[in-house]
Amino acid sequence: MLNAIGSPGEVLVNVPATTGEALSMFDSGEPVEPDYLIGMWRGAEIPTGHPLDGVLAASGWWGKEFIDSETVHPLLFRSRDGMRAWAMNPILVPVQSALKVRVPSFAYPLLRPTISALRPVLQTRRPRARLRSVTYRGKSTAAMVYDQQPVIDVFRRVAEDVVLGVMDLRGSAQPYFFVLQRHR
Predict the structure, then answer these.
(1) Does 3.30.70.20 match the CATH number of domain 19-182?
(2) pLDDT tens digits for 104-163?
(3) Domain ranges in the chain?
(4) Which residues pair with 14 in a beta bridge?
């Protein structure tokens, strides 16, 4: 069950849960306005049996940055020295293919070094998403709309400076869950 949020400054650890438990936690969360998300957020996956479970963690995904409602970097990674963040262009991520052909877990150790090596090609300085309010599961709340992917990430506040995200991905039979904790 999803009940371990962690202490301030600590990202929520990957807590196994069912889709139903994750949706229940999401539904009990407070809606947020887009401006609430402005800043940099550290992310972690919440495994629920989704075909993408484990892929973001294995890739070295660090979090998201919301500069303003029109300037969002949905996929942040840390540089090799760990001191700086860089944004990946999500159009280069084969999300639809990953749904059809589940990434085998034996390939996970190759993701991070491959992404690091391909950084010059994958990196972008341009924003690749926007913040909007949407109605999802009966409540209006902040959502991140990708510019070039059929993805909307919807957010609800579940603790102080912690939001639960639901990736609504076209072609996916179930939602994908992650948590963000405000970094700065």
Answers:
(1) no
(2) 777 778 878 887 888 888 889 999 999 999 999 999 999 999 999 899 999 999 999 999
(3) 19-182
(4) none
Question: What is the spatial distance between Cα 27 and Cα 123, in angstroms, rounded to a whole number?
Answer: 34
Angle at CA of residue 170, ends 131 and 27, nearest 5°:
60
DSSP string, 61-126: EEEEEEEETTEEEEEEEE-TTSS-EEEE-GGGS-HHHHHHSPPPGGGHHHHHHHHHHTHHHHEESS
Query: What's the one-letter identity of residue 118?
Result: L
1-29 mean pLDDT: 69
C-beta of residue 44 within 8 angstroms of C-beta of residue 62: no
Amino acid at site 74: P
Residue 121: exposed, middle, or buried by beta-carbon count in 10 A (0-12, 13-18, 19+)?
Answer: exposed
Short-list 11, 107, 124, CA closest to 59: 107
